[in-house]
Structure prediction request, 166 residues.
Amino acid sequence: MTDYGTDVTADVVQHATAEEEVRICLFSISGDYYAVTVDILAEIIIPQKIFPVPTTPSHVSGVISLRGNIVPIVDIRPALSLAPATGPGQVAIIRYGSLTLGIAVDSVSEVVSVPKSSILPLPAEAASQDAAAKSRGRYLQAIIRRQNSVAALLNVERLLDAIQLS
Prediction:
């Protein structure tokens, strides 16, 4: 016998309207907003003494000691066709596969959950950039639409391929 006191419709509607979300970390570099998914973000740290390493490429700022581990710090601004950093900011520690490195950013604004529907594909002209092109579009994965702004979701795999640490 059916229990008419149970409202099954409300449960079905609630599950149908709930949208899957992605957690991202938003940060600014040279006035633009970028993001990475939190699954590769280990932590955000305040600037500390960065030790330069001779014979490394110019975008490698140096290394830091993070709880006894040596972590290279890179400035991704040149890869994104932006002017190099002028002052200290924050460092986003990224773990991607077996690689751990710090990315120098101006400031971290927030870690938020965004609905998948707000993550939009790149415009065709940006998405079609080949690896040899000198365009920041090749290092972007998607555009994240926010209420009052947008942010570019970084393609970390391509970015790390382009960044030579030695």
Observations:
- The two ends are 72 Å apart (CA to CA).
- The chain has three helices and eleven strands.
- The helical segments are 8-17, 124-127, 156-162.
- The first helix runs from residue 8 to 17.
